[in-house]
Each structure stands twice: as structure tokens, then as C-alpha cells.
Amino acid sequence: MAEIEMVVVYDNYPGKKTLQTAHGFACVVRAGERAVLFDTGGSGQILLENMEKLGLDPAGLEALVLSHSHWDHVGGLNAVLEQNAELTVYMPAVFPRSLIKDVRQRARSVIQTDRPHEVLPGVRTTDVLDQGIAEQAIYVETAQGIVVLTGCAHPGVVQLARSAKAASGREVHAVLGGFHMAGASVREIDLVIDGLRRLGAQRVGPCHCSGEKTRQVMREAFGPAYIEIGVGAPLSFAQAQSQETAHSEN
Ligand SMILES: [Zn+2]
Ligand SMILES: [Zn+2]
């Protein structure tokens, strides 16, 4: 069965020793020969160095999805566009106009999102949710359900996972990325765990801005199903069969 691979290339938490950690998030999602980058971290230099050490060539990416416009997610944007001007960039339509215009001049195309868009077969954006800071996540169809990847999750990680579930019509299998829960109380963390489990989530991998306490409480709650994420951590999931068929027909 074909696999969908995800490699975190930028994060606050360490994974592989040779890679740099920094505040921000970026993750490469690969389906066969095709790859997309989700967010770009805060520093283009760190992003490109980490990708190089992981053998991931920016020129091989076909799309870039930006979750929201904070610097720790779009800081590496220029560096990525310098390496690859053939990218299709998916960015929330509410991004600053000057930024959209700038990217439009430098990328192959820009898709302004507010509703889900297919980025690769089996990889889609969620709705853009806006509770002050507009943000989208992406989700991947796997054999076990959908895997949701969040940038900072300012609108709420449960809300973004719920949006992904509604768009896909499938159970959530795992939720990974920044959960924006630094400073959350144990009670608040428990409520989020409950919310994610109601959506079907069996696994979680909080990183970036999730907060150390969130990681601890979720590590205990999910036990062996907890996913320890850091820079360079490779994750793979069996591709959903319908997507595998769709993919091999291309
Ligand atoms: Zn943010
Ligand atoms: Zn962030």
C-alpha cells in the first residue's frame, strides 16, 4: 500500500540531532513523487538548511500552503520562492493584499482560499476559520481516517479538526502540529483532548506552540498512540485506497 509521508522540517522541538530548532513550524507532505510544503517557519535559512540535511529539495515541491500570516509561518516564504518559482501557493484570501500581490508576482500561481481546496490527491486545505486570526489547516486522507496538520491553530485545534472532518466526511485519525495552548490549564487541555476524541482522534502530535504542559498531559492521555514530534521526525501513514487509485491513474 502506498504511503503518505510527512517530515517536520521546522519546529521548536528537536528531533534529529543535526537539524536546527527554532520558533515556527513547517512540514513537507509527500505522496509518491509529489510533495507540498505546509508553512515555512520563521527563517528561510534554517528552513533550507534543515531541508537540505533531510534530502528534501525545494525545487521538487509543487505547492506551498500557508496556514496564517504570522512571521513564524511565513518567514521562510521568500527563501522558498527563490528556490522554486513554479510553486502554486495556497493562502487565505484574507492575507494582507500586499503579501498576496507580492507572491503572485513570484510564484507560478496563487490560490486564495476560504473553502477547502485539493492541493494533491488526498491532501486538502480546510475552511479558513477566523476568530481574530484567520487560519487554515490541511488534512490528508489515510487508510485509517484523516490526519490533520495545523500551523498555530489560533481558531482552536478542535475547530480546525472539525472543519477537516466535515469537509472529508471521514473520521479524524490523528491531529499534528501547533495547538496554540501554551499556558492552558489541565482542565482546558482535558477539554481539548475530549473534543479531539469525539472527532475520532486516536493519535495526537502537538508541537511548536502547543506548550510543554499540553505535550505532557496529552502524552499521558494517549500513551503509545502519542506522536513525539520534533524537527526531522518522519511520519508515515498508509494512503487511503481511493486516493491510491486516483494517484496511480495520474
Ligand atoms: Zn500564529
Ligand atoms: Zn506559530
Provide an overview of this structure.
This protein is α/β, with parallel strands linked by helices. The protein has one domain: 4-Layer Sandwich (Metallo-beta-lactamase, Chain A). The protein has eight helices and 15 strands. Strands 6-5-4-3-2-1-15 form a seven-stranded mixed sheet. It has a six-stranded mixed sheet with strand order 7-8-11-12-13-14. Strands 9-10 form a two-stranded antiparallel ribbon. Strand 11 and strand 12 form a beta hairpin. Helix 6 crosses helix 7. It is globular and about 45 Å long.
Topology:
Blueprint: E1 3-10, E2 26-31, E3 34-38, H1 44-53, E4 63-65, H2 71-74, H3 77-83, E5 88-92, H4 97-106, E6 109-113, E7 118-120, E8 123-125, E9 129-130, E10 134-135, E11 138-142, E12 145-150, H5 157-168, E13 172-178, H6 186-198, E14 203-207, H7 212-222, E15 234-238, H8 241-249
Parallel strand pairs: 3-4, 4-5, 5-6, 12-13, 13-14
Antiparallel strand pairs: 1-2, 1-15, 2-3, 7-8, 8-11, 9-10, 11-12
Helix pairs in contact: 6-7
Bound molecules: zinc ion (ZN) (2 copies).
